[in-house]
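We now fix the convention by which a protein and its fold are recorded. Here is one such record, which you should read through line by line:

>
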Amino acid sequence: MPTPPSDVSALFVAEGDHFVPTVFSQGPWSPEHQFGGAAAALLATVVEAVPSLVPQRVVRLTVDLLRPVPVQPLRAEARVVREGKRIQVLEATLVCEGLEVARCSALRMRLGSLGDIAVPRGQGFGGPPDDAERPFQGPYEEASPPGVAGAAEFAFADPDGFFVDPTWIRMRVPVVAGRPTEPLAQLAFLSDFASGVGHPRHLPVTGINADLTVSVVRYPSTEWLCFTGTGWASADGIGLSQASLADPDGVVASVTLSRLMDPVAEA
């Protein structure tokens, strides 16, 4: 396997018609596989590059992680499934050496105006408090675990509550080197951390998510987003994590993840 770039502060480097993942894309489970949010962010970036007939915004992004996404060059493809001035439906895929490894479906809606109607925004959260616990704050070389821990910054209000409500997270690197990160890509990347926020801690289980669905009411106005959520598991090994993402003005999106759950192996 080629060595991923380690001297670029981004998740991916664009080379021709491929996106080359850097060390910042590496997931916490294996250095050979990407963090699911990295692949989701790349799909969101590809989707946002597709034009629409009128001003529109993605209101739902569903990403299926078909198999572990390798830390290898990826080719991205996007197409419009349904074109229209009120809604647009798109699909995008990531392909590695001829094999489809991830795909997404995106729904765009036209932008309008509700005038002076006072709309509910939900509870807003500013940036993390000054005394919040902040792990993984060093550069990549000092981060542990490697990879994505250097691409994100975390803050926990409860120093003994890893990913307990409320949790603040922000991206530290762009999705593609030399390009601004689209708000949808920011949400897609961060949403994969809902697996931690929504993990049922009272159960001796572990789990990985095979998808993520982000429902967006508006794009965030800040880098830091506050996560609040919960999660459930069934006796047949299927789990669900759910979280709300908020900025100082209120809720910006909700995310759900379907998870494969297993008992924690005894030492």
Summary: The chain has three helices and 13 strands. The chain has a mean pLDDT of 89. The chain has one domain: 12-111+122-263. The longest strand covers residues 250-263.
